[in-house]
C-alpha cells in the first residue's frame, strides 16, 4: 500500500518544517498546532492521517464535510474545523457537526451558530476571519472591525472566542507580506489582552507556513503538503 506510506512521509516533512521554523523563531514546537485540511479528499485519506496521529481536520464545504463526518463517526476524538465561507442557511449543520468554526465574518452568522449549537455539546470554538489584504476573493472583516465583532461574539453563550484566522495574499510583495503578518500578530496580541480565552492565531498554509510561524502563528492549516494537490 503506497498511499499510507506517502502520507506518513509527507507528515514527517511538514512536522520537520514546523520544527525548523519554530527553532529559527526560538519558539517551542508544541506552540504550533497542525490542522490537516482534508477538503475534496476522501474519508479514507482522513483515516490514514488519523492513523498517523492527526486529530484536527479542516473542511471548507458544508455538505461534503457533513457526509465525511458521518462516515467517520466512529473516530470520536477527531476535532472538525470549519474553515470555509459560511452562508446562513448552512449554519445549523455546522453548529451540529463541528468543534471549531474559523471563518466567522459577521454577527448574524455568529448569532445563528450560538442559537443552533446543541446544548449537550461544548460551546463552539470560534475564530474571526480577517481579510488582511482586502481581497475581494476572500471572506473576512477589516482589522478595524475586529474589536466590535469580538465584543459581540464574547456575549454569545454557545460560542467561545479563541482568536483570529487569516489568509494573507499569496501574491504580495515581500514587504507587503511582512506588513500583513505583523498587523495580524499585533491584532492578535491586543485581543489576547482583552479576552481570557483568546489563544489562537490561525495563520499559515502549505506555502507560507514558515513565515506565519515566524510571526507568531499558533495554528497552521495544511492541505496540499499533506494530501497532495487538489483537483
Ligand atoms: C484550502 C485551505 C487551506 C489549505 O491550503 P493548502 O495550500 O492546500 O495547504 C488552508 N486554509 C484554508 C482556509 C483553506 O481554504
From TrEMBL:
The UniProt keywords, alphabetically, are:
Pyridoxal phosphate
* Pfam families, per database record: Ala_racemase_N
Q: Which CDD domains match?
A: PLPDE_III_Yggs_like
* Limits of the Alanine racemase N-terminal domain: 11-230
Superkingdom of origin = Bacteria
Extract the GO molecular function terms from the UniProt entry: pyridoxal phosphate binding
Where, per the database record, does this protein carry N6-(pyridoxal phosphate)lysine? 39
Q: Per its UniProt record, what InterPro entries does this chain match? A: Ala_racemase_N (IPR001608), PLP-binding_barrel (IPR029066), PyrdxlP_homeostasis (IPR011078)
Named cofactor requirement(s): pyridoxal 5'-phosphate
Indicate whether Lipid biosynthesis appears among the record's keywords. no
Its job: Pyridoxal 5'-phosphate (PLP)-binding protein, which is involved in PLP homeostasis.
Tell me its family: Belongs to the pyridoxal phosphate-binding protein YggS/PROSC family.
- Quote the protein name from its UniProt record: Pyridoxal phosphate homeostasis protein
Species name: Aliidiomarina minuta
Amino acid at each position: 500500500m503506497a498511499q499510507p506510506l506517502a502520507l506518513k512521509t509527507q507528515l514527517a516533512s511538514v512536522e520537520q518544517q514546523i520544527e525548523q521554523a519554530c527553532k529559527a523563531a526560538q519558539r517551542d514546537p508544541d506552540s504550533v498546532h497542525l490542522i490537516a485540511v482534508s477538503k475534496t479528499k476522501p474519508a479514507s485519506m482522513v483515516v490514514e492521517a488519523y492513523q498517523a496521529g492527526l486529530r484536527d481536520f479542516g473542511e471548507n464545504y458544508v455538505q461534503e464535510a457533513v457526509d465525511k463526518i458521518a462516515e467517520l463517526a466512529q473516530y470520536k476524538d477527531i476535532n472538525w474545523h470549519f474553515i470555509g465561507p459560511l452562508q446562513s442557511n448552512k449554519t445549523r449543520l455546522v453548529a451540529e457537526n463541528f468543534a471549531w468554526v474559523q471563518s466567522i465574518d459577521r454577527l448574524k452568522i455568529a448569532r445563528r451558530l450560538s442559537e443552533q449549537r446543541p446544548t449537550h455539546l461544548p460551546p463552539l470554538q470560534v475564530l474571526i476571519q480577517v481579510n488582511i489584504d482586502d481581497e475581494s476573493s476572500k471572506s473576512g472583516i477589516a482589522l478595524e472591525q475586529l474589536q466590535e465583532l469580538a465584543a459581540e461574539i464574547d456575549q454569545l453563550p454557545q460560542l467561545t472566542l479563541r482568536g483570529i484566522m487569516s489568509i494573507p495574499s499569496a501574491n504580495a510583495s515581500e514587504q507587503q507580506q511582512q506588513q500583513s503578518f505583523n498587523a495580524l500578530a499585533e491584532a492578535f496580541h491586543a485581543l489576547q489582552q482583552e479576552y481570557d480565552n483568546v489563544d489562537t492565531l490561525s495563520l499559515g498554509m502549505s506555502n507560507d507556513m514558515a513565515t506565519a510561524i515566524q510571526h507568531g502563528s499558533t495554528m497552521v492549516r495544511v492541505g496540499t503538503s499533506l494530501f497532495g494537490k487538489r483537483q
